[in-house]
Amino acid sequence: MNSSPIPEGPGSVSGAPHLPEGFTGTFTSRYVDTGDLRQHVVTGGEGPPLLLVHGWPQTWYAWRLIMPALARDFTVVAPDQRGTGLSGKPADGYDTATLAGDLVAVMDALGHQRFAVAGHDTGMWIGYALAADHPGRAARLAVAETPLPGVSPSPPLFAPARLNNALWHFAFNRLAAVNDQLVTGREEAYFGWQFATKAARPLPDYAVRHYIDTLTDPAALHASFAIYRALDDTIAQNQQRKTRRLTLPVLGIGGDHSLREQVADTMKLAADDVQTLVIPGCAHWVPEETPEETLAALTAFLAPYRDG
Predict the structure, then answer these.
(1) Residue from 162, 230, 227, 167 nearest 194 by CA
(2) Is residue 10 a contact partner of residue 60, using CB atoms and an 8 Å limit?
(3) Domains, the chain, ranges and CATH?
(4) Closest C-alpha to 96, from 239, 219, 221, 198
(5) Are 196 and 202 in contact (CB under 8 A)?
(6) What is the DSSP string of 160-222?
(7) What are phi and psi for residue 68, nearest 5 degrees?
(8) Counting CB atoms within 10 angstroms of each CB, which of 19, 149, 154, 294 has the fewest?
């Protein structure tokens, strides 16, 4: 493992805006080289390892509000995935098999053979792939707020307006290049709309600004669409994965103003031991809209693993 140079700038622990009090006393940024990829990882805390997998269009920073409390019970590992934040942005490798393999390689480098996983949004895709492709590595899996391509039924092209408003970015993000051209210089309009319309409790302006700032670099913008451009591969992988049902405990979390029970219902198509949670007053951005409720849910779900 190569952990130099030290990550710096707004994407790092030392430079991120408005972190909770005491955050920098618990958490540090490091780079982990896992062969063909250098990944930025934020780590801290004591106890059994817990891997936090962010969603689109975010970074490790999405978990910041609940990380200090989690660190009292767990060794928290919050990476920037391939293509995001301060991690490398190669041209390919954005199918969920590869993305899950990236994170397993990080946990190997950090010395964590078995660990719990929490994934939000596209982090749910990656968390599911990790649990399915690397059996025995994930002890428990908590996932939130997305359909699961290749497992969930695909919505119709002419979906009701409310559903279309929630999901139209899937088709847009999959485009080969014109999406880069349309969003360049309009990052605030496109990503700002995503954050504003999918929140029951608006995210702070500084957080939205932070995420958008990470996406103004052309390489970062291009990479932000890559997990969607790889959906043909991911769907094929998931259709194979769901023939081997998960047996580990799974928690499916939905926002009361968003997917509700659909998250757990989706996971029941692929896993045998699924708990359902709907968080009141919450829409899509679960760890940031309702951090206290999210923390309570994860703490309760992970207690048997923590006390192991």
Answers:
(1) 167
(2) no
(3) 23-307 (3.40.50.1820)
(4) 239
(5) yes
(6) -HHHHHHHHHHHHHTSSSHHHHHHTT-HHHHHHHHHHHT-SSPPPHHHHHHHHHHT-SHHHHH
(7) -60, -45
(8) 154
Structure confidence by residue, pLDDT tens digits, 242-301: 999 999 999 999 999 999 999 999 999 999 999 999 999 999 999 999 999 999 999 999
The residue written with tokens 């899950």 in the block is: 100
Q: Please state whether beta strands 138-144 and 28-33 pair in parallel, antiparallel, or not at all (unpaired).
A: unpaired
Amino acid identity for residue 188 in this structure:
E
Whether the Cβ atoms of residue 112 and residue 77 lie closer than 8 Å to each other: yes
Beta bridge partners of 81: none
Q: How far is CA 269 from the centre of its chain?
A: 21
Could you tell me which residues come within 8 angstroms of residue 274 by beta carbon, excluding any fewer than 6 positions away? 250, 251, 252, 264, 267, 268
For the segment 163-191, what is each residue's pLDDT rounded down to a tens digit?
899 999 999 999 999 999 999 999 999 99
Tokens 């995210």 locate to 203
> Of 80, 63, 75, 85, which is closest to residue 19 (Cα–Cα)?
63
C-beta of residue 120 within 8 angstroms of C-beta of residue 126: no
